[in-house]
Design a protein that fits this description.
The complex is a heterodimer of chains A (169) and B (171). Chain A has 169 residues and is mainly alpha-helical. Helices cover 69% and strands 0% of the residues of chain A.
């Protein structure tokens, strides 16, 4: 069954709506057999290309200048001046050189502790001294016990009395 | 959008916006004003506009809205403007290849045919066929549903074709 001209017309427009679309076989067959639809297709194709290639009307330079003035141009003139731009660049370079020189030349002494570091160190020292004192007291007590133990009689300690052996005559 | 991106966008789209405004308004002075206003608004809203297609679409939408405002104001003041016949004369008048092409019979007839269209039909053709905006974007911009938009575009293409035939220039 052949395609009607009304359907072909719709399909021609649809093909223009999607430029990547290819003409289907049945539409191509219709265009091959119908001069009016073929002319419509060719005309619309040319029209489409002409519209896509419609030259643009350039915005006048004075209007573009006005746009820059009202937007970025408000700050631009101050920095756009070549003399000021060069002076700013030179100032940045001089500052960088001075800062680098000062960093390497300035002598750096031993670092002084902060108050917090001193406080923490004092607390740690007190703790160590406390442990040492307790260890010394424990050692003294242990030595005293040993000495006293040697002087106490076995009876006091609850041990059986040992009779001395008789001397033979 | 950074300042540098804004400057790039202005240079890329200034002629597009100006041409669109000139086609819709048919008045050189109004078109310049609209293009300038449009680009200044881009600067004010640059923080929330991405460069590229989004920027192009935003500019054309803004230009369209500004043009519609101007047309309504004209109607309110009953202003009648003569059709701008010098639309594509380059400002310096140099007879370069572009000018030769522009002055061809066909392009002039196409210009006249475009100007004969209603503002809405002209906007549809310009936004779709000239600028290549997606249908969805145009439909949202002109508050049309997709079916109406496509049907109008198809009808308008044939109107242009008929106008060119009447002018006895082959498209």
């Amino acid at each position: 069954m052949t395609m009607s001209c009304a359907t072909a017309r719709e399909r021609i427009h649809a093909a223009l709506d999607d430029p990547e679309a290819v003409l289907t076989e049945d539409l191509q067959a219709h265009l091959d057999s119908c001069a009016a639809c073929r002319r419509l297709h060719d005309d619309l194709d040319t029209l489409f290309d002409a519209l896509r290639g419609l030259p643009r009307m350039p915005l006048p330079p004075a209007t573009l200048d006005a746009v820059w003035r009202e937007t970025v141009g408000r700050r631009e003139p101050r920095w756009a001046a070549p003399g000021l731009a060069r002076a700013a660049a030179a100032a940045v370079v001089v500052t960088a050189v001075c800062a680098t020189t000062l960093y390497f030349v300035t002598p750096r002494g031993p670092k002084k502790p902060t108050a917090a570091e001193i406080a923490r160190a004092s607390a740690e020292a007190e703790m160590v001294l406390g442990y040492t004192a307790r260890a010394l007291a424990a050692a003294r007590a242990a030595a005293a016990d040993k000495v006293l133990a040697s002087k106490v009689s076995p009876a006091v300690r609850g041990e059986p009395a040992v009779r001395p052996a008789r001397r033979s005559r | 959008m950074t300042t540098v991106e804004f400057q790039g966008a202005v240079l890329e789209h200034k002629d597009r916006v100006h041409s669109y405004a000139r086609h819709i308004l048919r008045d050189a002075e109004d078109a310049k004003d609209v293009a300038q206003e449009c680009l200044v608004r881009l600067w004010r809203h640059r923080d929330r506009i991405e460069p590229g297609h989004a920027c192009r679409n935003w500019l054309l939408r803004t230009a369209h809205n500004l043009c519609i405002d101007r047309l309504r104001r004209r109607q309110a003041h009953h202003e009648v403007r003569a059709d701008d016949e010098t639309t594509f004369d380059p400002p310096d008048g140099r007879p370069g290849p572009e000018r030769l092409a522009q002055s061809s019979l066909f392009m002039r007839a196409l210009e006249r045919a475009l100007m004969e269209l209603s503002e809405r039909d002209r906007a549809i053709v310009l936004l779709r066929e000239v600028e290549g905006l997606p249908y969805e974007e145009i439909a949202a911009m002109l508050s049309l549903n997709m079916g109406t938009l496509k049907a109008t575009l198809h009808r308008t293409r044939e109107k242009l074709r008929d106008a060119l035939a009447r002018a006895e220039v082959a498209p």
